[in-house]
Amino acid sequence: MRNRSLLVLTTVLTTGALTLTACGSRDDGGKDNSKGGTTVVIGVDAPLTGSLSALGQGIKNSVDLAVQTANKNKEVPGVTFKIEALDDQATPATGKANATKLVGIKDVLGVVGPLNSGVSQSMQADFDKANLTQVSPANTNPSLSKGDNWGKGDFKRPFKTYFRTATTDVIQGKFAANYLFKDAGKKKVFVVNDKQTYGAGLAAIFSDEFKRLGGTVVDTDSVTVKETDFSSTANKIKASGADSVYFGGQYPEGGLLSDQVKKAGAKIPTMGGDGIYDPEFIKASGEANDGDLATSVGYPVEKLPTAKKFIEDYKAAGYKDPYAAYGGYSYDAAWSIIQAVKAVVADNKGKLPEDARAKVTEAMAKVSFEGVTGKVSFDEFGDTTNKQLTVYQVKNGAWVDVKSSTFED
Amino acid sequence: MNELPQQLADGLALGALYGLIAIGYTMVYGIVQLINFAHGEIFMIGGFGALTAYTILPDGTPLAVGIPVMLIGGAVVSVAVAMGAERFAYRPLRGAPRLAPLITAIGLSIVLQQLIWGFYPGAKSKVTFPEFKGESFQLFDGLAISRADAFVLVAAPLCMIALGLFVSKSRSGRAMQATAQDPDTAKLMGINTDRIIVMAFAIGAAFAAVAAVAEGLDKGQIRFEMGFLLGLKAFTAAVLGGIGNIYGAMIGGVVLGVAETLSIAYVEHIPGMDQFGGGAWKDIWVFSLLILVLLFRPQGLLGQRTADRA
User: Fold this and answer.
1) Of A45, A112, A115, A402, whose Cβ has the fewest other Cβ atoms within 10 Å?
2) How many CB pairs under 8 A join A and B?
3) What are the DSSP calls for A316-381, one per residue?
4) Which residues of A touch B262 (CB under 8 A)?
């Protein structure tokens, strides 16, 4: 019997240990690129591998394109830009390790990333302590820039180094609720979230607005990230008689959920935020996703006149992966750092000052230019002043934009 | 509409999948008392083997031809990997303290996962897997079995029957039972225990390959990291049913799968429990069930049929 209790103990311990270590880190040895002359490194932190890598690679490549463009045009005389891209695997712990590493490389004057709001939470404090500017192209959780009590109208910027080129979930969730209720005419929605910072936050904002408009949230459920079987939730959705599903989460789970809802026999659309706005959402399985909806920040990159050059340059550079949902925002994020560096260098007689990081952070507040996604500038919280949003719908296996407008509360 | 039949059917299909993987844990544990934590990865590699076999086929091959090819391809790859693991990772450690092979298994699991991640084309994110086309089978109003679920619901019992017959009727099967009971005496009786151990690994791997094909057909995708979570659940199923007992593994899997789906569907309808329902809490319920079973029946639901050497 002693051995048996030993087995039980081992089971429990190893199960726990394995769960904890499931998200280990993969290091790829950051190199300190300091070699005479003035080199400014722009750090990139994004999920370069794993199920969100389609978005992460798009971010990395777009920053790379911005850096190459700046070097080619001699945007900042006497300064050569470089990128240092780290993989956070969409896990907060890895993100924190990467933040520490980027802070440690003294030539890093700005960081673009990360993709996930939850990862950003773990990195903000490190950047703030080091006075290092961080610009996320994709974080949409409001608390990152407005503090934990933003829901009560108490806005307090927690970290002065945090900026973003993406609009927040407050705007996105409300925009989605308005579209689903008014334009699509859906009255009974079933809300699912993935229990992550981004997904749960977005789902809650959406639900509140949908109820305020007069719609009904028939039931809610949540799913676990990285699981693949949501058939039980799908059956609940079918039995609830909902006429639509709202999913707060990312495309790996969103795509499977949409498929399994349709397999369960409920012919209703699934709507989500920018987390599901990705071609991979449609490719999740052979099941047709036609009719599914997603909101994403900004106007479709392809339709903005300012974006044409970006798309041409991106193609010409021959990157293996597409620029994906956040390419334009990543380019603008990198470009805003480059502009801040330019301002700092111009103020200091063409040289980088000693406290370059603090100066760059100061300069960020004054950055303003016409970027890939429209006018780029930041408000007093570090949020983008650009409040354009678009609803996309799956038609014949591709995302098609159906409505773009500037959100007004 | 009554959703109970549908929930039960989905739970059964999920449970059958867990059961198929759990066989691998239980067979190896029954014979060598090793918890083979790399088994989840053997399952995942079976999926990639099956996909490779399918891509070799000419485009447009019907699934009726494709599935047997995938099953064979997946089984060949996963059995080869499992046998290689046994030969090079576990056999040198036979006789070492039990913690050594356990840690080796965890290490091997990481190695296998990273090998697929690094070297299988396109495996850095999910890979599309062929999928059944066509409607589900509508048995009656409120119960539709998808084709992929039908596949696993047929495949799992067939595999179990075959395994049961093999273990109880064939010469090798009886040798396997003997080795499980007492390896030293079995060796004295002229049984080649090394061969039996390899056989246990191979059978477990073949079952895992069947499960991987079922998972791929159902979800339409496979991922390099899919073996971890499913492997963990299957291991839980094996412990729940009584690790070491092959029927226990299948029963544990089914109990686990059904408990999972029912807890998502119904816990929130219990008065006063609505905040504990839904997908967020299912693992809490499933593992509470495991703890309860282990408290009252430490040997698992069916118990270990073979004598424990302790």
Assistant:
1) A402
2) 127
3) HHT-SS--TTTHHHHHHHHHHHHHHHHHHHHHTTTS--TTHHHHHHHHHTT-EEEETTEEEEB-TT
4) 232
Contact residues on chain A for B106, CB-CB shorter than 8 A: 14, 18
For chain B positions 38-97, those within 8 Å of chain A (CB to CB) are: none
What is the rounded distance in angstroms from the CA atom of residue B19 to the CA atom of residue A409? 53
Instruction: Identify the sign of the CA torsion A335, A341, A342, A344.
Output: positive
Average pLDDT for chain A: 87
Distance CA A90, CA A119 (A): 7
Residue pointed to by tokens 């100066």: A359
A19 contacts on B by Cβ (under 8 Å): 232
Report the distance separating Cα B198 and Cα B175, nearest Å. Answer: 13
Name the residue of chain B whose CA is nearest to A257's CA: B219
Within 8 A by CB and 6+ apart from B297, the residues are B303
- Interface check for B243 against chain A (CB to CB < 8 A): the answer is yes
Residue A299 CA: distances (Å) to CA of A66, A182, B137: 20, 20, 43
Distance CA A133, CA A45 (A): 13
Residue the block writes with tokens 């790379």: A64
- B144 and A265 within 8 Å at the Cβ level: the answer is yes
Note which residues in 49-78 of chain A have CB less than 8 A from chain B.
49-54
Name the pLDDT band for B59 (thresholds 50, 70, 90).
Answer: confident
Indicate the SS3 state at residue A107. Answer: coil
Q: What are phi and psi of A146, to 5 degrees?
A: -115, 5
Would you call A228 and B226 a contact, using CB atoms and an 8 Å cutoff?
A: yes
Beta carbons of B298 and A226 less than 8 Å apart:
no
Is the confidence at residue B271, as pLDDT, over 50?
Answer: yes
Neighbours of B112 (CB within 10 A): 20
For residue A306, what pLDDT is reported? Answer: 82
Whether the Cβ atoms of residue A65 and residue A333 lie closer than 8 Å to each other: no
Q: Indicate the residue of A8, A11, A231 with minimum beta-carbon distance to B10.
A: A231
Q: Residue B280: its chain A contacts at CB < 8 A?
A: 195, 221-222, 224
State the best of A229, A261, A282 to mutate against chain B, taking most chain B CBs within 10 Å. Answer: A229
pLDDT more than 90, % of chain B: 57
A232 to B310: CB separation less than 8 angstroms, yes or no: no
Q: pLDDT tens-digit profile of B125-146?
A: 788 888 887 777 887 777 888 8
Q: Write the burial class of residue B237 (CB in 10 Å: 0-12 exposed, 13-18 middle, 19+ buried).
A: buried
As a whole number of angstroms, the longest Cα–Cα distance in chain A is 79
Neighbouring C-beta atoms of residue B132, cutoff 10 Å? 18
Q: Are A131 and A361 in contact (CB under 8 A)?
A: yes
Cα-Cα-Cα-Cα dihedral sign, residues A339, A343, A344, A349: positive
- Evaluate if residue B54 carries a pLDDT over 50: yes
- With vertex at residue B136, the alpha carbon angle to CA B123 and CA B232, rounded to the nearest 5 degrees, is 45
Query: Minimal Cα–Cα distance from B9 to chain A, Å?
Result: 10
Residue with the two structure tokens 């300190």: A32
Measured CA to CA, the distance from residue B247 to residue B244 in angstroms comes to 9
- Pairwise CA distance, residues B269 & A189, whole Å: 19
B43 within 8 A of B116, measured Cβ to Cβ: no
Nearest CB to B279; choose among A14, A221, A283: A221
Which residues of B, range 153-212, sit inside 8 Å of A by Cβ? none
B118 touches chain A (CB under 8 A): no
Amino acid at B286: V
B185-243, pLDDT tens digit by residue?
999 999 999 999 999 999 999 999 999 999 999 888 898 989 998 999 999 999 999 88
Establish if B37 touches chain A: CB-CB under 8 angstroms.
Answer: yes
